[in-house]
Structures are given as structure tokens and as C-alpha cells.
Design a protein that fits this description.
single chain, 307 residues, alpha/beta, Rossmann fold, 7-stranded mixed beta sheet, 12 helices, globular
């Protein structure tokens, strides 16, 4: 598989960290397998890619401020999955832009794996606290471009056809304005064939449907709405139909909806967490019931004839 070595490289006036894999056989076109069937070759590549992302994520987390590591480790599997969707390890310099990522290690891991990564966020959420500057230094060390702006209101500021992958994980449900204009801008920023990845909490997952029967379901806790000077919690969560609507409005092709249960698996209620583990594989076959839902799509490789 190979292993990571922490290296530094000069980029302008700053020293950037890059995690170089000593051996990357799954990226080598001359890779040989004992039984090189298409199926086994694909499985070997996926396994090697998963190992690669895990090693990069571990290396990034090791540089996080200690108070932030428990938050990252609780969502470890989710971050592995999210990075794998963006495929920053593919040959060539992938350009990845993430909107609303906050403390997520997503962009740092993408950069560590060789991508040119950008994070757009206003960093105004109260939970950023005293660790924000330390976190921003980590992003700078890995060469992540940080753009501090309210993207849903101000736009992303990206040039057309300038990015290979745009992502937005668990952010849009916090926005107080329509995401339509921003999503169209992000779509225009993608190169032909570029990937659009959107994820959020499912408004009507199985647990919420059951809780609603007992009159106990709300999107946001009372304190987040009533006690905080600025409401930053969930405004509107999507469901599967919403994601399909967005994909259609953006004119995406090869649209897929994926269901995961990250929120259920790390629920503080042990009964809910156990139920999520027990039913996880079955629920993933029915994304409409999962706690987390993803929209995966792409910009058409060639212009669509609208005539």
C-alpha cells in the first residue's frame, strides 16, 4: 500500500505541508494483480484508495488542536466517505471547492492528497470559539485557500469552469436565504464533467417520523433559536425529493441519491445509536429513511441542446 511521509515545500513566502505517499500502486497504470479481472482490479483500487484517504485523515487530525479532535473523531467515518467522493487522489491536480465546511478536515485532507483545495465559510458560528485561529493555521500549512465570506448571500466568487469538484456538506440547512443562486454559480464554476456533491440531514428520516408521532420532533433545539443572539441552527432540512428537485433545476446529469446514517450512528441516545447500527445496511437501500442524504451529480461534458 505504501505509507505517508510528512514533507514541506516552499510556496511563495509560506511553507506548505504535503503528505507524500511513498508508494501509490493503485494510481500506477502498470499495477499488476495476480488475477487481473475487471472486478478484482476495481476492488483493489477502491481498497487502496480507502486506505490512502484514512492515512491522510489521520495525519491531518494529528495536527488539530486537542479540543477539536473529539469532534473530528466522532465523525471519522463520515469524513472518510466525503473525501472519497471527491477523489482528490486521482492523477493530476484536482481543484476542489467546499462551501460551509467549518472545522471539517475535508479540504485539508484533499490538499494533503494533492488537490488544490478551497474552503469558503463565514466562520461566524459561535462554536468556532478560541480554536478558530489555530484551525486556520492548519489549513494554511496544508495549502488550503480560505475565503471568508457569506457565500449564500455574497456568492462564492468562483470563475466559470475553474473547479473540478464542488461540495457542500451539512451546511445549506443553516442558510436563511434561498440556495438557488449560489448552487447555480457553483455549477457554472465546474469544468465539463465536473462533480457536484451536496449533503444534509434528512428532514423525514425514520427516527424523525417516529418521534413526530409522539409530538417530540423539531429541527432545532429551543436554546439555539431563543437564547442565541443570531440563529445559526437548522432553518430547513431537505428530503430526497428536495435533492432531486435541486439536481433537476441545476441540469445535472448522472444524478444519484445516497443514504447514510452518520447522525444516527453517533446519536447520544444509546437506543437510537444501537438501532442505527442494527439497521444501517438495510436503511442505506432506502435513502428516504436515512439520517443523512447525498445528491451526487455532474455537469454535462458537452453543452445540452435546449432547442
Amino acid at each position: 500500500m505504501g505509507h505517508f511521509v510528512l514533507r514541506t515545500s516552499q510556496a511563495g513566502r509560506s511553507t506548505r505541508l504535503r503528505l507524500d505517499l511513498v508508494a501509490k500502486p493503485f494510481l500506477d497504470k502498470s499495477m499488476r494483480l495476480d488475477t487481473p479481472t475487471p472486478v478484482e482490479s476495481g476492488q483493489a483500487e477502491r481498497h487502496a484508495a480507502s486506505r490512502l484517504v484514512a492515512e491522510a485523515l489521520d495525519a491531518v487530525i494529528a495536527r488539530y488542536p486537542a479540543p477539536l479532535r473529539p469532534y473530528i473523531n466522532r465523525s471519522y467515518d463520515r469524513f472518510l466517505f466525503d473525501v472519497s467522493l471527491a477523489e482528490p487522489f486521482r492523477p493530476g491536480s484536482r481543484r476542489v471547492c467546499d462551501v460551509g465546511g467549518g472545522y471539517s478536515p475535508f479540504t485539508a485532507v484533499c490538499a494533503a492528497l494533492g488537490a488544490r483545495a478551497t474552503l469558503i465559510d463565514d466562520f461566524l458560528d459561535p462554536w468556532f470559539g478560541h480554536e478558530m485561529e489555530a484551525f486556520l493555521r492548519i489549513l494554511d500549512e496544508f495549502g488550503v485557500e480560505v475565503v471568508r465570506r457569506d457565500a449564500p448571500v455574497q456568492g462564492a466568487g468562483l470563475l466559470p469552469a475553474s473547479v473540478d469538484v464542488v461540495t457542500c456538506f451539512h451546511s445549506m440547512e443553516h442558510w436563511h436565504c434561498s440556495p438557488k443562486a449560489l448552487f447555480h454559480e457553483l455549477t457554472r464554476s465546474l469544468v465539463p464533467g465536473g462533480s457536484f456533491i451536496l449533503a444534509g440531514p434528512n428532514a423525514v428520516n425514520l427516527r424523525k417520523r417516529i418521534s413526530c408521532l409522539f409530538g417530540r420532533y423539531t429541527w432545532s433545539p429551543m436554546w439555539a433559536w431563543y437564547e442565541e443572539p443570531t440563529f445559526r441552527s437548522h432553518v430547513r432540512e431537505p428530503d430526497v425529493r428536495d435533492l432531486r428537485y435541486i439536481g433537476s433545476d441545476l441540469g445535472l446529469v448522472h444524478v444519484r441519491i445516497i443514504g447514510k446514517n452518520w447522525m444516527g450512528l453517533r446519536n447520544q441516545n444509546p437506543v437510537i445509536a444501537w438501532a442505527a447500527r442494527f439497521g444501517d445496511r438495510l436503511l442505506q437501500e432506502m435513502p428516504a429513511l436515512c439520517s443523512d442524504i447525498y445528491l451526487l451529480g455532474a455537469v454535462a461534458s458537452t453543452p445540452v441542446d435546449s432547442s
